[in-house]
Amino acid sequence: MVGVLLVCAAASLVGVGLRTTAVGSGPVRDLARDGRFAAAEAAVTGDPRAVPGKGRPMVILRARAEEVPGAEVRVPVLLIANDPRWLGLVPSQRVRLHGRFVQPKGADLLAAVVIVRGPPTVLGPPSGIQRAAEHVRAKLRAAVARLPPDQRGVLPGMVVGDTSGLDPALAEDFRAAGLTHLLVVSGANLAIVIGAVLGLCRLFGLGRRRAPPIAVLAVLAFVVVARPEPSVLRATVMGVIGLLALVTGRQRQGIPALAAAVLLLVLIDPELARSYGFTLSVLATAGLLVLAPRWRERLARRLPGPLADALAVAAAAQVAVSPVLVMLSGEIGVVAVFANLLAAPAVAPATLLGALGAVTAPLSLPLAQVIVWPAGLAVGWIIRVARTAAALPYATIPWTPGGLGAVTLLLAAGAALLILRSRRLRLLAAAAMAGVLIAVIAVRATAPGWPPPGWQMVACDVGQGDALVLSAAPGQAVVVDTGPDPALVDRCLRRLDIGEVPLLILTHPHADHINGTSGVRNGRDVQEILTTPRTSGREARLAPGLPCLL
């Protein structure tokens, strides 16, 4: 086994080196280095997604450049466009484009970033697999269309990774609550599906020889529907390994299998070596294999078995990924373990019923709508948990970001372990904690609360842009502009306890003043929108169904 791992490691290093060399030189990189405009042909490799832009949303998608002036190539590029017609593309479609090639920034293994001009010129249809996947995904979106907005945004994400209808403010709540992993295709999703398939095989009396092929077919169907992108392949491998290890109790075999799978995936797609998502997935799986079994045994001595299992799994995964999360966000999720514990009972019903709805929707849309209705109830519970957890005081604690933050967190965890093992250190730590608690209570008792009594105006911290809140009555306020991010203005209004907005004023159509509008509407009654003569009324489309004064 050691020899196999060493061979895989060497092969992975070679793969990363070859990919780095390929994207760091050649015709595409030459165009990017000179910042030149050029025509090109490319194949779409990822789902297009809309992001806030200056004046209008922008479309970002990954592609593989296949032809540039005077050369045929096969290198990854990132396309940035401002024409909404790019959103209609499906992975595997070939397009012709014209844009400016610039050098990429960051750790992605890209040959260039292409700032595209105009709409795409589609050269051909997507592959049969991608057409089938898009058909199922579209039918699933149609099946959930009658659910409440938040539920129909979350359920497709849990089932097939489709977050196109997800409210950004709700996504921020999931992040603060430590539930973001539920919004994307993960190993847990696949483990639930495979577990259900194996359970059905046992129920119908299928032996060990027949059940594995059926489970493999279920995995292939899952990959096709979710699209065989690197993230889905990663989730497939991690889900299979985690399920086999936890079901069979062979954690020792799980660790070598995990290591081999990681190296194999990096060999297939070297860019995963620089992917934080891949790192988080690996760490979470390793936590389930290494920490969860031991913690489950200890918790089972004092807690009921199912509760011990759920708590051990949630805590192990969160502890394993915390250093990387701190490095990325500069925050420690205090409520993440308990939020995952509360959401866990609804995850399996939502995933299974959602998957069944996805399978049924192409055959009978009315039947699929009936199936996804109880799935929507389960998703509704998860959403309530996310919003409640995110709204709690100190749901996240600021921490030093970057590598220093990860190191200090690991040192703090090591110190905590030493304290727990020594009775004298536990007493000293308890005394220190009591002193800190008394000091905090004293400061809180003498300091004015937030918002201060009789407040008249608050300028929300929304980064680049403006969002002003003018008090109108208890729980009511006039909002002037909404900033660039729905989550930031939503958080500001929550802290001010604003539940009703009699008037929303949008001064001019720049992204840093209007793109946060959905955050103002998140759970609040917005009665009217006022736009100034500088606008064209386009902002009204951000809040459909509301009176708009021009």
DSSP strand tally: 15
Rounded Rg = 25 Å
> Which structural category fits the helices and strands?
alpha+beta
Report the sheet with the most strands, covering strand number, pairing sense and barrel closure. 6 strands, mixed
Strand content: 15-25%
Any low-confidence stretches, pLDDT <50, length ≥5? 536-545
Instruction: Give the overall pLDDT as a whole number.
Output: 80
**End-to-end Cα distance:** 71 Å
Shape: globular
| Quaternary organisation | single chain
Strand order of the largest sheet: 10-11-12-13-14-15
With helices defined by DSSP (H or I, 4 residues minimum), what is the helix count?
18
What is the number of domains?
4
Helix proportion: 40-55%
In brief, what are we looking at here?
The chain is α+β, with helices and mostly antiparallel strands and 550 residues long. 55% of the residues lie in helices and 15% in strands.
